[in-house]
Amino acid sequence: MSALSAYRYLRYFLAVVLIAAVPHKLLDPAGFALAIARYDLVPTAAVNAIALVLPWLEALLAILLVCDVLIGPALWLANLLFAGFATSIAIAMARGIDIDCGCFTTGTTGSMLFALVRDVIFLVAGIILALIYARVIAPSRAVTPAETSEESDPGESKPEDAPATAQDPEAPSAS
Questions:
Q1: Which of 37, 87, 124, 163 has the highest Cβ tally under 10 A?
Q2: Is 13 helix (H, G, I), strand (E, B) or coil?
Q3: What is the pLDDT of residues 2-24, one digit of tens each?
Q4: Nearest Cα residue to 133 out of 84, 87, 79, 86
């Protein structure tokens, strides 16, 4: 598989993961806030704000990934979220807390180990995508200084050794 294909598939995969996590959080913000509170990792005053903002952030990141816009910042934020989710689950497991992770549903208790492994897989996919973007995609999208100067200053004179063409209004006349 080429790097470009992997880039496309991983972008869509992570976008689907992020958007799949949104509906239950928007439809049941109180249930999602309760799932966040059960982790006992954030101040009580921040729980509701997180429950209200996080699904919109996940939706925005999914849209950016699908549209291939602002990929660098979107990947940083998505990977930060995946790392935070995995860390939160690991801390809950270490404390012996068996709760609903709040990832894709609320109100049901699933396997915390499964949720942890799943979030680590999402994080690894995000890191691979970030590496492909940084090493292959971003450099191919970079604009060289020559392209920038040609586009920004069309009246700039050509180098001395460049041949004059009939279409060039600056070219010396033959007479």
A1: 37
A2: helix
A3: 888 888 899 999 999 999 999 98
A4: 79
Give Cβ neighbours of residue 86 (< 8 Å, ≥ 6 apart): 116, 119, 120, 123
Q: Kindly state the tokens that stand for 92.
A: 């809950």
Q: Which residue has the tokens 């690894």?
A: 124
Token pair 């509170």 in the structure block, residue: 37
pTM of structure: 0.74
Query: How many DSSP H helices and E strands does the chain contain?
Result: 8, 0
Q: pLDDT class for 152, splitting at 50, 70, 90? A: low
Encoded tokens for 99: 């709760």
**How many angstroms separate the CA atoms of 6 and 28, rounded?**
34
Tell me the residue type at 142. A
One-letter identity of residue 15: A
